[in-house]
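pinned: reference chain
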Amino acid sequence: MNDSSWGAPPHTGYWGPSEGGPVQGAAPAGPAYDAHHAQQTRPMPIVPDVPAHGGDQDDDRGAARPGGPLFRDEMPHAQPYGAVPQKPDSMPTPDDAQQPAPAPQKKSAGRDLGAAIGVAIGLGVVIIASLFVVKAAFVGVIAVAVVVGLWELTSRLQERKGIKAPLVPLALGGAAMVVSGYVRGPEGAWVAMALTALAVLVWRMTEPPEGYLKDVTAGVFAAFYVPFLATFVAMMLTADDGAQRVLTFLLLTVVSDTGAYAIGWRFGKHKLAPRISPGKTREGLFGAVAFAMVAGALLMEFVIDDGTWWQGLLLGLAVAVSATLGDLGESMIKRDLGIKDMGTLLPGHGGIMDRLDSLLPTAPVVWLLFVAFVG
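pinned: its structure tokens
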């Protein structure tokens, strides 16, 4: 509102124009004024339930109101006549005064740590008990993990892509592959892999030909990705210090993952592969390498027969790189499928495949380095 109109002598329906208008006190009359001055005088706001001119509200027309606007729709930042106007952006708004400042958000770890730790301890007990009591029992643990991983992978492929990789020949061939690798070594593993691929081709022939190529391709991929790579863990076990080698392999992979998680969560700022796995950072990769190299030097020096610390450094570096690539590889698969986890069997971890992602590609690397370093 224009405050220069306040304090003029009262006239019915009109309190006088602004300083540039007609003489105050003379009420303009007729439509001529309305047509001439309609754009020069700001209309008074219409306020509901206000008494007509001459009532109690007129007592304050000659003086400034002690506080608050005269009308409900008057802008809160309106200034009295003659006051220096303030910049609109420097005035606090009622919303600013009423809304508290947002509290800083705490950095979240992104997973249920309690459940994850509990499941990890349970899996560790099963692995250690089977590994150092009866080696054959640990081979059975590997076979079970392979079958469950195949079930998760083929189920997600069918749900998200309509790809029907035959599970029955994959499960039977995968278990046979692990046992063959333990009993007959690399030759047995390769023969079992070839027979499993052949079984997938034949099994799929019992269904209509539509989608045959993509189904059998996914089946052969699943046979190589899960059971064949897992066979190298069973082959580590055949050495005289096989239990120690498998334990070293598992510990290095876990330490690498833990180092990447801890350092990346605390210091991670630069994304490693944002299009594949936005949560992974370069700082996390450095943490994985550092943790794994230190652990590798200690394990090779004090756990592996005839091992040396410098071999452990190389082994730790290789594990950190292969585990990270394996994790990124499964992240690529899950991103293509549009899912976050392969399953929900392990609370705090996801599915079995979400735990095997870094172990599977690391197994042949560790097996090969053990053969090269200590035979």
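why pinned: Confidence is low (pLDDT under 50) at residues 1-42, 47-83. The radius of gyration is 39 Å.
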